[in-house]
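In response to reviewer comment 3 from the previous cycle, which asked for concrete evidence that the modeling workflow produces usable outputs, we include below a single protein chain processed end to end. The sequence was submitted unchanged, and the resulting structure tokens are shown without manual editing.
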Amino acid sequence: MSDDTISELADEAIWLGELTVSLLPDQPEPKGLLALMLYTTARRAARYAAAGTYVPLERQDTNLWERPLIALAEDLLHQASAAGPSGRYQIEAAIQSAHVSRRLTGVANWASVVALYDHLLALTGSPVVILNRAVARAELDGPHAGLADLALLEADKRMRAYQPYWAARAHLSALAGDTASATQALTVAIGLTTDEAMKGYLVGRLAALQDDLRTHT
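The workflow returned the following structure tokens.
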């Protein structure tokens, strides 16, 4: 799927989100969903390097973010939060808001991110939430804590073919100093990746890990 096609689909999704909000103005979850999409779209230009490889959130150039979209997302999230109990989309949007705030202010807020994931996990029981929470907790309590949380997913057969699981496992293993395990997990992640931009990023990470492994052997 081309970048233009992805952009067109994202724009259409936002249009549908805006339509839903206009039809259900008193409902908080449509606003939460629209805010979530706007946070994601606002970072679109910073998500890829000049060579076309993927750029993770923590390395993105925030000058490329679309601030008007972020401001609109923040306003929608505030409206949704004031309208009633938080639903799944509101919490996911709040997580994105926390990430944006951290990058723009430089103030670490991982405790808040983990707490939001706790709420989302209680609401959904999703293994993907467990995965994302483990990565966030590693930032708060260290990579070994994140790996311990990630171990909860080892028996889940769905994770065997889930690329983000292996990428996260590689990331946390590398942070923990276990370069061999990180290399193994990253190799699996690359094999499961169909997106060329993401594959380019992961291949670069693997090359760096292999260089590190050779240096210390």
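The radius of gyration is 18 Å. We consider this sufficient to address the reviewer's concern, and the full set will be provided in the supplementary archive.
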